[in-house]
Amino acid sequence: MKNTALTSLHESLGAKMVEFAGYKMPVSYGRIIDEHIAVRNSVGVFDVSHMGEFIVRGKDALDLVQRVTSNDASKLAIGDAQYSCLPNGEGGIVDDLLVYRLDEDMCNEGEHAFMLVVNASNIDKDWDWISSHNSNNVEMINISDKTSLLAVQGPKAIDTIRSLTDVDVDGMKYYTFNKGVFAGKKNVLVSATGYTGAGGFEIYARNEDIQAIWEAIFEAGHPFNIQPIGLGARDTLRLEMGYCLYGNDIDDSTSPLEAGLGWITKLKKDAFIDKDRLVNQKAQGLQRKLVGFVMDDKRAPRKDYVLETSSGEMIGQVTSGTQSPSLGYPIGLGYVAIEHAKVGNEIMVDIRGKKRPATIVKLPFYSS
Q: What is the pTM of this model?
């Protein structure tokens, strides 16, 4: 099992540590509900250094990124980030990821540079997949093992980090980034992104710099009662927003169109993996769709629970579910047959043999 550069720090804080994607990670430091509310109301910090980072650069770098991703990376200016996915050639998804258009000072004239940020569980899989389509010998560098990543999330995140960096965080738009000095450490990438829906930033830095950055953030955030946050609250926060989790809501068997990711699937751009298949799927109509639903019962739905009509017809299954800390009732995501996917439809969730009522709702579940 791998450690992040902050594993010993988490242990010293009394975190409950679990194996996740091959890493020893903090799932919580206390009650998950308290950590969740801290992020929604103020500010919290996640160590997500298990994520993977690849540099892709060269004169054909854009062509490679365009070929393997569903979104249109040609629209990215330097300093822009983009959510995308890697189609798998069979209508499914290899992974979802972020694409960063980097400053070209690291390239020769006429070349481009990108950073791809991928899920920890898929680092090797994604590297092999992208490499297999790298027909023009674009330079690829896996910097995952030497890169740490902190997510500083919540409405007080900007007030926490403002004094720590020369990056203009007040002027930074959503899904943009810049590099600068952070907590006295050079060449730190500050990104206005996150997986919580609470606003905030993600901080990429070298492993050897990350503990000093963590400590500076907590000192600056003390007036806002800043808290360390584990993966448990990360999951409840993302689910309230209806964000997909790879391995649950999307995987190699799910189409990005079925998953509601048509907005990152640019069917009008030049050829990319699965373009023709996805164009045909859209034209013929989807057979199923990922929907959000709220329980009319107090019991939370869990992954793989069966979804049915009131007459007992099986129409799909749950992919994610939890008791929403912000809303106070159970919520879930699941795929259902398209004819049953309309907002307002009543469905049944089979919870250990008992049928519990639920209603399909528009996402996100939570809005501030």
A: 0.97
